[in-house]
Design goal:
By secondary structure, the chain is mostly helical. The protein has 7 helices and 2 strands, in the order αααααααββ. The protein has a two-stranded antiparallel ribbon. Helix 2 packs antiparallel against helix 3, helix 2 crosses helix 4 and helix 6 crosses helix 7. 17% of the residues are buried.
Length: 146
């Protein structure tokens, strides 16, 4: 069941180009290799054996590629972790409060401030993460700085 239409040939050329581009990225390369082999007429089961994955995995990759294109083959982190309970506005307000009073706050006092001001309780570690990653604040000595 070889594909001979112009569109299929263009798809194969595009997949070959993507294979060259994604060669350093093992997972994406394997997925593209399965897609290429299926487009060339290989069964999904045989294409799965080439990259040493289960047939059902190869079928899922082909379905995702057919539905979403290259974006369907990338990792899907949409169901990872919880959303921040503080809104963007609250995060911005908190950052401004800390920056306007340098040296006044440490992680524990900010944790208590969040509880008092926003009625949201975080652990010490979560507050530290919010300060470092979301607000871009750092410690110099015992003081939080932007």
């Amino acid at each position: 069941m070889k594909s001979n239409s112009i569109d299929d040939l263009n798809d194969l050329k595009e997949i070959d180009r993507l294979l060259d581009e994604y060669k350093p990225f093992y997972n994406m390369y394997r997925r593209l290799l399965v897609i290429k082999n299926v487009k060339k007429g290989m069964s999904r089961g045989d294409a799965a054996k080439v990259v040493n994955v289960h047939r059902k995995t190869a079928e899922n990759w082909v379905k995702l590629y057919n539905k979403k294109g290259l974006d369907g083959l990338g990792p899907d982190y949409s169901n990872c972790g919880l959303d921040c309970r503080l809104s963007d506005y609250q995060l911005d307000e908190l950052r401004n409060l800390i920056v306007q009073s340098p040296g006044k706050y440490d992680v524990e006092s900010i944790r208590l401030l969040i509880i008092k001001k926003y009625n949201i309780e975080y652990s010490y570690k979560q507050v530290w993460y919010i300060l470092r990653r979301k607000l871009g604040l750092n410690y110099k000595g015992n003081k939080l700085i932007p």
